Amino acid sequence: MAIFPQVQSRVFALAPAPQRIPSLRHLGPNWYATVMGTAIVATAGVALPVHVPWLRSACVVVWALSAVLLGVLLAARAGHWILHRDQARDHLLDPAVAPFHGCLSMALLAVGAGTLLVGRDVIGHPAAVAVDAVLFTAGTVTGLAAAVAIPYLMVVRHRPAPGTASPVWLLPLVAPMVSAAVGPLLVPELPAGQWREALLLACYAMFGLSLLATLVVVPLVFARLVHQGPLPLALTPTLFLVLGPLGQSTTAVNQLADVAPGAIGAPYASAFGAFAVLYGVPVMGFALLWLALSVAMVVRAVRRGMRFTMTWWGFTFPVGTCVTGAAGLARHTGLTALTWLAVALYALLVAAWAFAGVRTLRGLFSGVLLAAPQPLRSATVRTT
User: How many angstroms separate the CA atoms of 66 and 34, rounded?
Assistant: First the structure.
């Protein structure tokens, strides 16, 4: 698996040159990040509070690409489990790889949301609702399972050493937040009354689940940076993963505020609207602080020789959640500055997606990205 280099407890000799023949053996769960990063380009594009004549058509094309990528990766990962069951089990027991099992949930949710937002232009509204309902259900179930199973494995099997917290630990924990952010799209499609209120409050429950778990992990990540120094060069882009729960939670509270009046009575509906701004603005401020810190660390890493790896897909989905979060705040406050912030972040998102996509295709054609990973030399994790 090559999307994010593995950090293991042993020191390995330099690996031989990668084979040219592609194999499913090293296709890990983190490849779903390509689906997430592609789908968010479409959903963030239609969320922008500005009108660009050709943008929606472009987003439809990008959504279609994300749907194709999801289908291909689901089939490939099924083949991985069938043909390389031993490696699939090793992925679950590898503390550097296991957290990426949360990416499956987010890929399903991102494509489902894109289907209802832009895919309906192609397949029609009823079919889009049906597809989103299936993907939302599957994504939510797998996300909640990952949010429990991966921390359980970290405690009883992985046992990471002190001072080794990684931003990738957030991946299984942020998946329920994605459900909270895209679930409101389905609220108006349900019968009025108990059904709508149940989904609305379920989304708020997943918002709280993910937020509180994030508040546990992020301080560990920052403490690791302060006490242990910068991440290895290849892992530096994973710092952007911290933006995911920040941007996605801001998106969630704004989306939930939009549908609350039709799902729950006073005074809660208006309170949810106020909460969207009172919560979203401070969190977006912290997201911009973390973005600036992460950019500085990436610049430092590039100057020290950081080369392209699949970790660079970490620049896409997290930034996209900040786009949708800023767009939601612009919608609820009417503040022009937030509109331009969303546009600027979207430009950054598209540039990162295009670069990562081109380099990924090049790596696939050369066979490098499906070769056996080359573990890092630094011993930062102990296993039992």
Answer: 8
